[in-house]
């Protein structure tokens, strides 16, 4: 398998095609099994060790949406360079086992999709007919998952960290919408602009933009403390 190309080329798809019949037979089946096993192992590791994932799982549990690994995650083969998706109809997170090869990438995809699942849990998100809802969750996922917190040092150097981050979030949200809805770029840009400020500033359940694993760890600890405080009342 090819190594992942540029980090920025990873697509996120809210509702990837889930056609099980596409699985090929023969020797490929064997490698698919290996991919599937590796995907499961990396998923387990992400759920147990990533502070982003742990915080989101705790927050969902508190909101009455307990997540089960076997029920709510599915490692599957996906088209193109899609990394993952959230299937609102089945409340399942799809992880693209043929496109995720590194633990750090798995952690980001799990976090990104858990933010959609969190939004799905806490709000009555109208994924299908209200593009503003979809845009808002994509902005939040790009902003809070770490998708935009790594990488292009030159861009950061040129434009400053803050502006680079915002532009990255905007661009990723637009791309995610275009990947799953038949609308043109202009429309997508307009919708993202309309909801950008509100959704960019909604940091729940992190309380801040976690720019690094360390930030996420702090956010998780704060969340735990708050939870403990309320539990004691
Ligand atoms: Zn997304």
TrEMBL record:
Keywords assigned by UniProt, alphabetized: Hydrolase, Metal-binding, Metalloprotease, Protease
EC code(s) of this entry: 3.4.24.-
Residues that span the membrane, as ranges: none
Record carries keyword Protease: yes
Domain of life: Eukaryota
Recorded GO CC terms: mitochondrion
Protein name per Swiss-Prot or TrEMBL: Mitochondrial inner membrane protease ATP23
